């Protein structure tokens, strides 16, 4: 194993997480994917063999990954870390034009892709980047491997999901992943006997973070190719933890094959990525499902604040909060905006989250809205979430998203896209909102009913797409 240079400046080293588990928990399950399984020792060997194929690539190079969830993607992800390169995680649902731009912007010199995405790859314009199906040609000899991890080194570059604009590249260090995983494990009580079901895409921080948590805490991973309610239900009895966005959990509960028993036996269902509808939280509490509500972001390597299943069960009135900050970060409110600072963020200063929120008297954090989602009409602040919650109490409205629309008189006005069980007119929607106590200046001025709200790859509502739909409807 290659040793990091002693006395090197700006290095903070810890044992390589996978190598550590392979030494001390060699026979325990590390990864299950379909009909294949790896112990920690077997995964260590497979990662070494995969990283050996990178010899022709400069160790400091950036290697892009374009793949659906699969064993090969995970092996490549870990091998890139072992080799000393930086991973560029690409969204497989993007268009060729978007992927071309992201690859060029990232400076990746190599692309490893899933053969199932060959048709997509053929449409990407490669300038200074070589493309290989999952791994480069095998070398003659294996290079020495890193036995340690430098926490200050950049592990990967992720692109934000772009729900309110163009995706932006966000570098994440091993240290950010490390401190985030330790803090979350302390809050939720991770043990090496736990297993995590990963159905979020690995190119999203919600999926990626679960990989590092598993290796750091010695937990087994069960990796699904994608989120499908029937696949999740079939695998849920094998694990103790799962992370989902609210729309995913809603689809699971509505699925004909849903069986609450294995879900009740879980240690934690971690919900994040978006605010869950109150009725979803209430249903989970009634079913005695161990849900944890969280607040996080890519810049913080996932979770910032969390309310645990036990806290929710004992204090259901706190179900509109996202709990208290993890020990790895500090949170403050400045002029209504949430600011963050901590070891799970890149840099030592305070970071403006762009989210609006407040702390209640018990020091539980409440997230109101993205500041970019705020609607300002005639100088009045309008919170879309307030209107969405009212719309969701209507018997015919299953889902709703409220966004700003350009208004020639007021600057901005309210628009709403809804999933409706029956046709609703604008007047009917406005009358209902008024009956629920909504002020007249907050009423939707344009509406559109759809069979399903547009979503990003991770199940979040795509607010940019919603705005475009409403603009076309006017």
Number of strands: 26
Structural class: alpha/beta
Average pLDDT number: 91
Oligomer: single chain
Query: What shape does the CA trace take?
Result: globular
| Residue share in helix | 25-40%
| Rg from Cα | 23 Å
Characteristics:
474 residues, alpha/beta, six-stranded mixed sheet, 15 helices, 30% helix, globular
Report on this structure.
The protein is built from 15 helices and 26 strands. The chain starts with 12 loop residues before the first strand and ends with a helix. The longest helix has 15 residues, at 174-188. With 474 residues, the protein is an alpha/beta fold. A 9-stranded mixed β-sheet has the order 3-2-12-11-13-14-15-16-17, sandwiched between helices. Helix 6 (174-188) packs across helix 7 (205-217).
In short:
The chain is an alpha/beta fold and 474 residues long.
Which SSEs are present, and which pair or pack?
Blueprint: E1 13-15, H1 17-24, E2 29-33, E3 36-39, H2 40-52, E4 62-66, H3 71-83, E5 86-90, H4 96-106, E6 110-113, H5 118-121, E7 130-133, E8 148-150, E9 154-159, E10 169-173, H6 174-188, E11 195-198, H7 205-217, E12 220-223, H8 229-235, E13 241-244, H9 246-254, H10 260-264, E14 268-271, H11 278-286, E15 291-297, E16 302-307, H12 309-314, E17 324-325, E18 329-334, E19 337-342, E20 351-359, E21 365-370, E22 375-377, E23 380-382, H13 384-391, E24 397-407, E25 411-420, H14 426-435, E26 444-450, H15 463-473
Parallel strand pairs: 2-12, 4-5, 4-6, 5-9, 6-7, 11-12, 11-13, 13-14, 14-15, 25-26
Antiparallel strand pairs: 1-8, 2-3, 9-10, 15-16, 16-17, 18-19, 19-20, 20-21, 22-23, 24-25
Helix pairs in contact: 1-2, 2-3, 6-7
């Amino acid at each position: 194993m290659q040793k990091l240079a002693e006395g090197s400046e700006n290095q903070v080293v810890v044992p390589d997480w996978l190598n550590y588990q392979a030494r001390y928990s060699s026979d325990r399950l590390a990864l299950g994917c379909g009909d294949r399984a790896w112990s920690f020792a077997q995964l260590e060997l497979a990662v070494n063999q995969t990283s050996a194929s990178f010899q022709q690539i400069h160790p400091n190079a950036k290697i892009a990954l374009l793949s659906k969830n699969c064993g090969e993607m995970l092996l490549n992800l870990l091998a890139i870390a072992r080799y000393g390169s930086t991973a560029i995680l690409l969204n497989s649902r993007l268009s060729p034009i978007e992927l071309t731009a992201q690859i060029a912007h990232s400076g990746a010199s190599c692309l490893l892709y899933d053969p199932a995405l060959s048709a997509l790859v053929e449409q990407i314009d490669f300038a200074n980047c070589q493309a290989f199906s999952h791994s480069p040609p095998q070398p003659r000899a294996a290079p020495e491997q890193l036995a340690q991890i430098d926490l200050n080194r950049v592990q990967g570059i992720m692109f934000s999901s772009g729900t309110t604009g163009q995706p932006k590249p966000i570098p994440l260090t091993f240290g950010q992943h490390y401190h985030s995983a330790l803090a979350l494990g302390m809050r939720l009580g991770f043990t090496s006997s736990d297993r995590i079901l990963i159905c979020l895409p690995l190119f999203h921080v919600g999926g990626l973070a679960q990989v590092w948590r598993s290796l750091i805490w010695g937990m087994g991973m069960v990796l699904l190719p994608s989120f499908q309610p029937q696949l999740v239900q079939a695998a849920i009895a094998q694990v103790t933890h799962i992370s989902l966005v609210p729309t995913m959990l809603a689809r699971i509960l509505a699925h004909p094959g849903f069986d609450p028993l294995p879900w009740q036996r879980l240690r934690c269902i971690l919900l994040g990525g978006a605010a869950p509808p109150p009725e979803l939280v209430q249903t989970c509490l009634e079913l005695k499902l161990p849900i944890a509500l969280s607040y996080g972001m890519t810049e913080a390597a996932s979770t910032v604040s969390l309310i645990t299943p036990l806290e929710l069960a004992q204090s259901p009135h706190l179900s509109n909060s996202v709990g208290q900050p993890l020990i790895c970060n500090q949170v403050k409110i400045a002029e209504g905006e949430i600011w963050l600072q901590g070891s799970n963020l890149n840099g030592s200063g305070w970071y403006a989250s762009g989210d609006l929120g407040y702390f209640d008297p018990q020091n539980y954090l409440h997230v109101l809205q993205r500041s970019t989602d705020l609607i300002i009409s005639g100088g009045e602040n309008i919170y879309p979430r307030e209107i969405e919650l009212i719309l969701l109490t209507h018997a015919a409205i299953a889902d709703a998203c409220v966004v700003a629309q350009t208004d020639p008189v007021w600057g901005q006005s309210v628009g709403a896209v809804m999933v409706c069980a029956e046709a609703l007119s604008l007047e009917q929607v406005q009358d209902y909102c008024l009956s629920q106590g909504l002020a007249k200046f907050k009423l939707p001025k344009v509406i559109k009913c759809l069979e399903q709200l547009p979503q990003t790859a991770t199940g979040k509502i795509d607010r940019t797409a919603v705005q475009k739909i409403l603009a076309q409807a006017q």
